[in-house]
Automatic annotation (TrEMBL):
InterPro entries in UniProt: Jacalin-like_lectin_dom, Jacalin-like_lectin_dom_sf
Residue ranges occupied by any Jacalin-type lectin domain in the UniProt entry: 1-91
Protein known as: Jacalin-type lectin domain-containing protein
Record keywords: Lectin
Species this chain originates from: Oryza barthii
GO molecular function, one term: carbohydrate binding
Length: 93
């Protein structure tokens, strides 16, 4: 059975994720690039992360969330490492 590492971020009552950024790069002897770090930003001005690395190694990426929208869910693809990540976005109510 594979080890599973879970990450839990507890947001305050009205806090919502408004941006996701990270880095993509090589990890050890893995041939294909993977997500090497993730950082989450909220409407409360808080930053969670970087998780997985220091956020300084690899190629940076950001997932744009339009003005007035929030992140309501995530999707991803992984094996041993996180290969891809995306977000579901909804207008803020």
């Amino acid at each position: 059975m594979e080890d599973v590492i879970a990450m839990v971020i507890k947001l305050s009552a009205r806090e919502q994720v408004t941006a996701v950024e990270g880095t993509v790069g090589n990890f050890r002897d893995v041939d294909e690039p993977v997500i090497t770090s993730l950082t989450f930003h909220t409407n409360a001005g808080r930053k969670y992360g970087p998780y997985g690395g220091n956020g300084k190694q690899g190629t940076p990426f950001s997932i744009p969330v339009g003005k007035g929208c929030i992140v309501v869910g995530f999707w991803g693809r992984c094996g041993w490492l996180l290969d891809a990540i995306g977000v579901y976005v909804s207008p803020q109510s």
